[in-house]
Amino acid sequence: MIKKVRILFTIPNFITAGSGREMMNIIDRLDKELFEPYICVQQAGGALYDEAMAKGYEILVQDFMVHNATGMIAILKGAKKTANAFKKYRFDIWQSFNWSSDYSEALIAKFAGAKYLYVKKNMNWDRAAWKVKSFLSNQIIARNTTMFRAFFAPPYLKTKTHYIPGGVDISLFKKQTHTGLRNKYNIPQDAYLISCVAQLVRIKDQLTLVKATSNTTAYAILAGAARDDEYVAELYALIDTLGLKERVILAGPVKDVCALLNETDVFVLPTTNIGGHEEGSPVALIEAIATKTPCIASNVAGNRDLIQTNETGLLFAPNNVEELTACIQKYMNEPSFASTMADKAYDSVLKEHTLDIEAAAFEAVYKKMMRIKK
């Protein structure tokens, strides 16, 4: 009987950490004849926590980082002490879905006897901690081609870095009709509707989208949790100043994203690149493509892996209201072009961005780490 490979999947929690569903999707699709998954969270609770429990996965509620330690010696001592809680499980692989640059987790994994890898989701790279964390890692998962080329170019990193973009469950985003969403927000059935699904934070730059919308006759729904009160206040003030109260709706978190996308004529992801903030592998954009919704995105890392101008959609320069306006108007004036872009983008998602493809790529890395040929 083949000894199963024990993999510990870590994430801060299933309550606020946005990658919980993605992590669960990978765990669910693992070959259970080869791999035995465990989960570690620092805080119990959340719907996904309950789901994992119901599925029978063993969950450890345990800190997996060193806190309040100053200096390398203190961090090493703290990591060695924390590792004691994990040693008895004899984990073979330690898969981190913790997006922090904190490298103490990598040290804890090594002291516990596990091979460590992490997923690089964001475009932050200026902290020395990222370099240390990457040096300590046995393998690294890069979420977009920009970070793969820019961050992990040195040979000692390139040889252990794998480009694995995000994926979605295509079956959840089938075409729907008559969802009732337009009635809910008093949007005319024949109105051209723009949607954006992203947290209301400055780096997502919904301000640029609001300004571009004002240059058209379109309506817009901005769906997403408010994470920055000052920024949200700016959005409301801009909407008021431009006289868009009836045409731009801040809908908050939307549970049925598929329904929103199916009522949408164009999806826009206007992420800024100010301060180095770009996208990793934007799931919201992949979901929009999965419903065959024509897409427009800012030309930043992550977005341009999914959208190429006049091939699978339209890109515009970040923060550029005039370019975004022109993109929206092109789709409004040329519906057949918009439809063609949506179909081509959908084909690319089927080839590269399904959950099965993503999970298989992760599993291939685990097999490589353990030299499994099956």
How much β-strand is present in the residues? Answer: 15-25%
Mean pLDDT: 94
What is the strand tally? Answer: 13
> Segments where pLDDT lies below 50 for 5+ residues?
none
Calculate the terminal CA-CA distance, rounded to whole Å: 14 Å
Q: Helix share of residues? A: 40-55%
Looking at the structure, the CATH topology of the largest domain is Rossmann fold
The number of helical segments is: 16
SSE series? EHEHEHEHEHEHHEHEHEHEHEHEHEHHH
The first-level CATH class of the largest domain is given as Alpha Beta
**Mind telling me the C-alpha Rg?**
22 Å
Biggest sheet overview: 7 strands, parallel
Walkthrough of the structure:
With 374 residues, the chain is of the alpha/beta class. It contains 16 helices and 13 strands. It has helices spanning 20-28, 47-54, 72-87, 104-111, 128-136, 145-150, 155-158, 181-184, 206-214, 229-241, 257-262, 283-290, 303-306, 321-333, 335-352, 355-370, and strands at residues 5-13, 35-43, 58-61, 93-96, 115-120, 139-142, 161-163, 193-197, 219-223, 248-252, 266-269, 295-298, 314-316. Strand 5, helix 5 (128-136) and strand 6 form a beta-alpha-beta unit. The longest helix is centred in the C-terminal third of the chain and has 18 residues, at 335-352. The model has no long low-confidence stretch (mean pLDDT 94).
What's the gist of this structure?
The chain has 374 residues and is an alpha/beta fold. The chain has helices spanning 20-28, 47-54, 72-87, 104-111, 128-136, 145-150, 155-158, 181-184, 206-214, 229-241, 257-262, 283-290, 303-306, 321-333, 335-352, 355-370; strands spanning 5-13, 35-43, 58-61, 93-96, 115-120, 139-142, 161-163, 193-197, 219-223, 248-252, 266-269, 295-298, 314-316. The protein folds into two domains: 5-166 and 355-370, 3-Layer(aba) Sandwich (Rossmann fold), CATH 3.40.50; 170-352, Glycogen Phosphorylase B (Rossmann fold, 3-Layer(aba) Sandwich).
